[in-house]
Design a protein that fits this description.
single chain, alpha/beta, Rossmann fold, five-stranded parallel sheet, 8 helices
Length: 209
Amino acid sequence: MRGLFITLEGGDGSGKSTQIRNIERFFTEKGLVVLHTREPGGPRISEKLREILLDTENTEMEAVTEMFIYAASRAQHVRETVIPALERGEVVICDRFVDSSIAYQAYGRRLGDMVAEVNRHATGGLSPDLTIWLDIDPETGKARASGDKGPDRLDLEASDFHERVREGYKAISLAEPERFKRIDASGSIEEIKDKIYSCLEELCRERCI
């Protein structure tokens, strides 16, 4: 049986790392094998491309260049890591996927429909079974995340860029409400976890897990 492909989306400070651990626990307690991966990143080649994308010295990178590097990283990740795990029947939990490119490049960079088309080829048409979007005001998220790590190249963007990214996520949630679930990330960790678990239970009922 094909495994489950679950992705998480959201800006810095939204609590993705904490909730990924909770999702992992949800499925391991059901006796399922779980693979946790991330984008950009995953296999060696994709991680090398991640370094280029997030390096704060690369601020002169063109928007179209950025789009293609993200897609290249994703193409390698999908074929080397995600698809083999799904074929083994595992649950793949991925920190970001195509929806990030739609939000950040199509909306944030204003590249429009070409982003979806490029990523259709990069993924071979693979789509998550469920996407959880942890929605938080960009300024609130930035304040939460300020002590976690140094800024990457995207963190250096102006606030209006991050607002456009959020609008991109909102557009996806309206277009694909069955797959793409918005969860208010301003609540407590337990409140957010409970809402995510409700989504996971529904998915498991649909898949008879």
